[in-house]
Amino acid sequence: MAKQAPGVRIDGLTVVYKTPAGELPAVRDVTLTLEPGTITGIVGESGSGKSTLALSLLNAVQPPGRIAAGSVDIDGLGDVVALRGENLRKARGKHVGYVFQAAQNSLNPLKTVGKQLLDLGRSHGVDDLRGLVREAKELLGRMGLDGARVLDSHQHELSGGMRQRVGIMLALVLNAHLVVLDEPTTALDMITQANILKIVREVHAERGLTTLVITHDIGVVAEVADRLAVMYGGRLVEQGPTRQVLGAPRHPYTRGLIKAIPRLVGDIAEAQALPGRPPTLVTVPKEGCVFRERCPLRMDVCDTVDPAALADGPRVVACHAVNVKEHA
Amino acid sequence: MITGTGVVKTFKQRGKVLGAREVQALRGVDFAIPKGGAASFIGESGCGKTTLGRIIAGLETYDAGEIVIDDVAMSPLKPKRRQPHFRKIQMIHQDPYSALNPTRTIYQTLYAPLSLRAGQTGRSSSWIEERAAEVLTLVGLDPGTVMSRYPHQLSGGMRQRVVIARALTVDPEMLVADEAVSMIDVSLRLGILALLKDLRERLGVSVLFITHDVATARYIGDDGELYVIYRGQVVERGPVDTVIADPVHPYTQALLSAIPVLHGLEQPGEQPVMPLETLDDSQADAGCLFARRCPFRGERCTSERPLLHVTEGVPQEHACFYPERRNVIARPMSEV
Amino acid sequence: MSVILETSSAAMRRNFWRGVWRVMKRKPSRLVGAALMLGFVFMGVFGPMFYPDPLPRDPGQITRPPSWEHWLGTDDQGRDVIALVVTGSRYVLLAALVTAVITVVVGTGIGLFSGFKRGRWDTVLMRLTDMKLTIPGLPLLLVLSTVWKFSSAVQMGLVLGLLSWGGVARAVRSQTLSLRERGFIEAARGLGLSTSHIVGKELLPSMAPYIAMNVLIAITGGVYSQVGLFFLGVLPYESNNWGQMLNTAVFRSGALTVPSALGFLLGPLLAILLLTLAIVLVVDAMDEIFNPRLREE
Fold first, then answer.
1. Where is the ABC transmembrane type-1 domain (chain C) (predicted)?
2. Do A258 and B262 touch (CB under 8 A)?
């Protein structure tokens, strides 16, 4: 493993989608740094822009969407936003491994896993295909599967958890050191989920990766991530070390989200749903704070001014109410 | 009161003439859900919990055993005559997106069952409108804004509320909620769970909650009963909080151990149980169904199958030869 | 309250048509298609009224190429080709319409019943459909034409329709099978709603775009088969129509070799081409018209 875990610096990233109502931002002015060798978790509900953000790491936002502003700087690769054509294709897979949503539909149902592995190798110009297969078997074995058997299988012969492991294998087999996992455990059972999360943690440490996990489930991030970033309505509203954010959330949305998780012990009445509903691309406020409609701390300034993301040590919060208090 | 005794269901794999494989979805399940009560079926996918829920809602037949709805046994009745009984049990599907007809407005969706009802009881058409508005209000929606909408104009949480409102049009005795919140945005899930609990309290509707997420099962009422199902067999059964706080079956313990811990807020349990991994658990076996994945299996486990029973000192029923309490669940930091 | 809802079904109908207009406006090609289709309807219904019957012959202008006087030339009896196309359209279009209606009504009916009932009915009906699908249409038509003269367009459409519902039946059945597993159909059954409600109000509207598309495509199918039959010359004809024109143009006037008969050949071909084009352009809008989400957006 000669390669080092790369760092990633996302700066002022804005991604817009073309709609009949004009170009609307799905991700707005997001600044986020993935330190080399860490696991970062992005949490958000539907429409928060988390998946779009993940796709931007590969410059893979599909039309009608496009990256309108900002940069994604990856060590050893440069600004991904500027990459085009063949260079971009090569970068995907080789530098950045992407594991699709629970790998449910990302495998070709007509081809065995092995055949798809060879296709992947050929399209990236790998000369040593035998070595690739050996590497794949080793990875699968590491994840508790019978490599030879899995490579000979079609998608329908594998369970959800097995498919997810195959997805991780395909993302890592070309020796990528930056891995993006999009909803890695959605639609999986609790026990399978726990297994997959354990594998993600272990593989991350063993191979020296920089990992980004995208999920709607705070529990998943709590289990694996060093750093937690919360997205809402295309904005990054809070980020910081996972334990600190979970232990003492600052942004009202993060607080509400944590309060809304059903727990195993404690008073049932303590857990509460957030009022209102998450915004869509069309309903997200054009100016002012994106969260104000559901916010218990709403002030007048929230209607007109989008709160800036202010750093306080390792923690960043974008909220007028919180930042005013902190700085007062 | 809805009870089941020894419910068995076997699926035959279709399309195979030779060597047709049979899958035992349910291996003799007993349950009892009192009027206005709550019960939860929990287990992994494929454990039979959904099949059982569908059987209880009358959407699936059963091969053996008996289901009794308000003292009327179902199997002696002809399918046509069962229907009015099963209508008292309404299913809330997992996916609120496919559960509503996209070509019909919310009012049209509610109108159909209500007009049937109005016809049977000789009520006027103005009653239909009033009742439609009433059920929508019951589930926390504003009739004025929702009625003329199409499903696509509502959020997932609102759709699920409409689905519940539609079920309420027939004045059901029980709602069967199959993973009813898993496709709804996290911040809104608790709202739906609270609604189900609220309907129990206000209307006396019993709720059967089917899920793989044990934590959500608590939120329909702490007086509810929890059924832990593994491969078509109930392996542990008891009051919700007892089973969660003091599980004795290793499978229940594994399910509880697998729930993510909110580090920074919670302290993980000290004795988490990770089930062993097996690639193939399809073949029939004589012993405990969980034995092959059980880290604590004893000699007796592979030769003899434990059935649901009670032992001294354990308040809940369980199907394990060696029941033992283990500290598996995460607890809030403040409590530790 | 009650007043609002009483009028709501009328309002919904109004909304529907407003939505249809919105969908059609979205692409100019759809409007072109719709205009062409209206043109053909007008031609079929009123066209023949503009011409004397029988059409005037001009013995001095036999099989002429296009000219100012006769835009698409004349036929071998000195009649104007455009007049022939217009007067011949009624038979062709009426027969095609009857074909389409029968194809879709029978096909949808059998497909729905089969897919919804499943079990024994399904097996019987689908075997029947398979059998029907294996019968080669054209040879059968040729045989039938020896005993039946197809003098009226309705008869023609009836026979063609009864020969072509198989594909629709199979497709509707598979749609029904997949739709009946959907949550809302299951919910309707759980609520004790009648079968006629489930089929009529839940299943059919969900398949509406599909059925509408099939009607339109069946029309082109109907045009092709009857034009083909007449072109082959296996049917005697009483009134003129597009197929018979093609037959005469090719076999009697030698349109493939004689340039002066080219207009005679082009007339009916152009009509068929435009009709097909109109249908293709309109079919494109069906999905959006019947899906409330796509209609409103």
1. 89-283
2. yes
Block residue for tokens 């040879």: C139
Asked: is B1-88+172-245 a CATH 3.40.50.300 domain? The reply is yes
Q: Which CATH architecture has domain A8-95+176-327?
A: 3-Layer(aba) Sandwich (3.40)
- CA proximity to B259, closest of C64, A222, A11: A222
Which residues of chain B lie closer than 8 angstroms to A258, CB-CB? 262, 265
Contact B101 C205 (CB under 8 A): yes
ipTM of the complex: 0.87
Domain locations in chain C? 12-40+91-296
Kindly report the nearest CA distance between residue A119 and chain B, in angstroms: 27
- Is B176 within 8 Å of B90 (Cβ atoms)? yes
* Nearest neighbour of B107 by CB, restricted to C5, C191, C201: C5
Do C113 and C125 form a contact (C-beta atoms < 8 A)?
yes
Strand order through the sheet with B2-12: B22-33, B2-12, B64-69, B72-73
Nearest CA in chain B to A47: B185
| Per-residue DSSP letter, C224 | H
pTM of the predicted model, to two decimals? 0.87
Residue by residue, pLDDT tens for chain B (336 residues) are 999 999 999 988 665 455 567 788 999 999 999 999 999 999 988 899 999 999 999 999 999 999 999 999 999 999 889 989 999 999 998 888 899 999 899 999 999 999 988 888 888 888 999 999 999 999 999 998 899 899 988 888 899 999 999 999 999 999 999 988 888 888 888 999 999 999 999 999 999 999 988 888 888 877 899 999 999 999 999 999 999 999 999 999 999 999 999 988 888 888 889 887 765 555 556 889 998 889 998 888 888 899 999 988 888 999 999 999 999 988 888 765
